[in-house]
Description:
Elements: E1 2-5, H1 11-23, E2 29-30, H2 42-47, E3 55-58, E4 61-64, H3 66-77, H4 85-115, H5 123-144, H6 159-170, H7 180-190
Parallel strand pairs: 1-2
Antiparallel strand pairs: 1-3, 3-4
Amino acid sequence: MLHLWGRLSSINVRKVVLCAQVLGLDLPRTDAGLAHGVVDTPGYRAQNPNGLVPLLQDGDFTLWESNAIVRYLCAGQDRLYPRNLRQRFDAERWMDWQQTTLNPAGSPAFKQWIRTPAEQRDATVIAQSVAATEPLFALLDEHLSRQAFMAGDELGMADIPIACEVHRWWGLPQARPARPHLERWYAGWLALPASRGVLDLPLS
């Protein structure tokens, strides 16, 4: 009954695919967005008026916003979704932080390095993005020095969007400081078979 619309070059689509693979869900996917089109068609806009990806279909129910989709899938499987109220909202907090703070900081450098022709890149934009993003990765490193995962001692839904941000930031062709605790945490992700086809993809 599940179907996902969106291209894997989108970090937001990668979140959902990674989540589904961790949960062992069968999630057929149709490419949509950018060169694939689809998102501006009347049928798609009727399901997602924003014209963005991803879009999840679950029977006659549709859902957009990547982190909301991750929450939905985790809650539906009763895995990765904290039942303790405080732990759940600790996870919610980190998921919101990824979307509202970490992602906007790193996006300009990603777009310059990956989606802008070399002769048109603006080094100032990249430098500003690095200056905004690296303190946030330092915060993550310090947080993970105190616990194994984002919201406690077990892998949970909050780890998924952060992993996709790390994949994108560390995939850029630029120097970065050592982050031993974050590196330990991310190495654990890369050791999971569920990360294949998502966290090992080149950026595009």
